Structure formats: C-alpha cells, structure tokens
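step 3/5: co-fold with heme C
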Amino acid sequence: MVDNKQKPPSRLWRRPSSRWALGIPLGAVLAFALGAVALGTTNYVVHATSSTEFCYSCHSHESFIKPEYEASSHFANVSGVRAGCADCHLPHDNWFELMWTKAVVSLDAIPELAGKLDTAEKYEAHRAEMAQDVWRQFKDNDSKFCRSCHSIDAMQLEDQHRTAARRHAKAEENGETCIDCHYGIVHKEPDNASELYDAVAAEYAGTDD
Ligand code: HEC
Ligand code: HEC
Ligand code: HEC
Ligand code: HEC
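step 4/5: write tokens
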C-alpha cells in the first residue's frame, strides 16, 4: 500500500523562497496593469466607433446624409442638445447588444468597399429598404433610442399643440410608438414614405405591441 506519511509536502504549494516571494505581488501588479490597458483600449475603440465622425467615415456623403442631418432639429435646436448618429442608432443600455450591433456595423465594410452607397443615385435606390429596416428596429424596441432623451411622462402636454397633446396622451394605451408618427425627422423620407411605413406597420398588426 502507499504510505502517504512518507511523501514530501507538495512542491506546488511550498512556501516560496524569499527571492520569488516578490514575484507574486509584482505579477499581480503587472496583470492588473495589462488588464487596465486592455480594458482602456476596448473603451477607447467602443467610444471612437460611436462618434458621428466615425459614422461619417462612410456616411459623410456631402450631397445627402450630412446636409439632411445638419438641417434637422436634432443637429441644432433652441436647447442646444444634439443627437449624434449613435444616439438614434446604437443601443446604450445593453453592452452585449452594443457589441453585437458594432459587429454587424463592421460587416458594412464589405458593401462599402463594393461602393454600394457611394453616389446619391445608389443611396436613393437603397433608401427605402434601409429606412424600412430601421423602422422595423424601432417597432421591435418600442422606439427606445428616442426614449433615451424623450418621454411622454416628462412632456408638458398642456403646453403642446392640441393635436400633439391629444395624440401623446393616448399613445401608450393605443399601443403606438414614437416612430409610428415621427418618421423622417432627420433624414429625407423615401418616396411613398407613408405607403412604405404602412407596409411595415401591417407586419406588426395583430401582434400585441
Ligand atoms: C465601413 C463603412 C461604414 C461605417 C463606418 C458605418 N456604416 Fe452604416 N452602412 C454602411 C453601408 C455600406 C450600409 C449599407 C449596408 C447594406 O445595406 O448592405 C450601411 C447601412 C447603415 C444603416 C441602414 C441599416 C439597415 O438595416 O438597412 C444605418 C442605420 C447605418 N448604416 C448607420 C450607421 C451608423 C449610426 C454608423 C456609426 C456608428 C455607421 N452606420 C457606420 C457603411 C458604414
Ligand atoms: C440625444 C437626445 C435625443 C434623441 C435620442 C432624440 N431626440 Fe428628439 N429632440 C431632442 C431635442 C434636444 C429636441 C429639440 C427640443 C427643443 O429645443 O425644442 C428634439 C426635438 C424633437 C421633436 C420636435 C422637433 C421636430 O423635429 O419635429 C420631435 C418630434 C422629436 N424630437 C422626436 C424624436 C424621435 C421620434 C426620436 C427617435 C427617432 C428622437 N426624437 C430622438 C433630443 C433627442
Ligand atoms: C399618435 C401619434 C404620435 C405618437 C405615437 C407620438 N407623437 Fe409626438 N407628436 C405627434 C403630433 C401630431 C405632434 C405635433 C406635430 C409635430 O410636431 O409633428 C407631435 C409632436 C411631438 C414633439 C414636439 C412637441 C412640441 O410641442 O414642440 C415631440 C418632441 C414629440 N412629438 C415626441 C414624441 C416622442 C418622443 C414620442 C414617443 C415617446 C411621440 N412623440 C409619440 C404625434 C405623436
Ligand atoms: C433623431 C434620431 C436620428 C439621428 C440623430 C440619426 N438618425 Fe439615421 N435614422 C433615424 C430614423 C428614425 C431612420 C428611419 C428612416 C426615417 O424615418 O427617416 C433613420 C434611417 C437611417 C438610415 C437609412 C437610410 C435612410 O435615409 O432612411 C441611415 C443610413 C442612417 N439613418 C444613418 C444615420 C447617420 C450616419 C446619422 C448621423 C449623421 C444618423 N442616421 C442620425 C433616426 C436618426
């Protein structure tokens, strides 16, 4: 039989000799520093790729996206609050969803290189289908990007135009979401926008939204 009593204590867990003892806290400090650098770089990359400048690196198009956005009330307004591209197009409340969206956006490098949207004509040819994609996204998430700045609760309905106040007061109970009434607020509407929007809304009719 094996006689355990005679076995020397495990080498693995022997008290480190004084020369190596210093290595343990030093190693911990090094690991911490490396971790911080890695995290810092990730945060840097995440922030850099959420800036309007980053989106402009592909979507700057002086003749369409940029002038439409810069003429909109979300670029400049009385209150001086600006909504950047990322405020309306990237999730901020869920890290995993943000990373997923970024991974999907990075795939757009492929059609970009293929020149899918590089002229106004090409952009117009795709605008309707892209706008419908974005509308579906807003229907799916109950316009949550709009709600990160606006909320019906915070509206002074009595100071709004009567129609607006009436429609906002009833929106929740009627199951209506911001995008149902406020599309085309930053970008030019695609041709036949209301028919295209109705087609998207019809996909949702009957579902309990
Ligand atoms: C590498 C170039 C590139 C960058 C950077 C880029 N985009 Fe795009 N984006 C494209 C291309 C190309 C398309 C068209 C993709 C397609 O329909 O296949 C597109 C499509 C879109 C669409 C329509 C999506 C859809 O579902 O049809 C939105 C919205 C959008 N981009 C927003 C953004 C925002 C916001 C940013 C910045 C965070 C951004 N893009 C950064 C190239 C880019
Ligand atoms: C980053 C914050 C922010 C986000 C995100 C945002 N808004 Fe706004 N919105 C504002 C500000 C600020 C104003 C101007 C307020 C003022 O000074 O009157 C405004 C104005 C408006 C107006 C009135 C002016 C107009 O152009 O008709 C509407 C309608 C509106 N927003 C709807 C939306 C909808 C719909 C979304 C989502 C697609 C959205 N907003 C996303 C901040 C935001
Ligand atoms: C049932 C339709 C409807 C829905 C849903 C709706 N709105 Fe409106 N909203 C209107 C109408 C109509 C106006 C007045 C005309 C306009 O500015 O477009 C208005 C005006 C506004 C204004 C300008 C108010 C002012 O007096 O300056 C803001 C901001 C706004 N809506 C934001 C939102 C947001 C954010 C949501 C989602 C939480 C939303 N609305 C949902 C119909 C709606
Ligand atoms: C206030 C919210 C808001 C801001 C800010 C915003 N968008 Fe959009 N975006 C939308 C909505 C809503 C749609 C869906 C189509 C529509 O209703 O105009 C859309 C549609 C798009 C599309 C699809 C094609 C189209 O023209 O409809 C692209 C591409 C796009 N956005 C890119 C951008 C880029 C790039 C920026 C910054 C320069 C930006 N958006 C800023 C709300 C916004």
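step 5/5: annotate
The chain has a mean pLDDT of 85.
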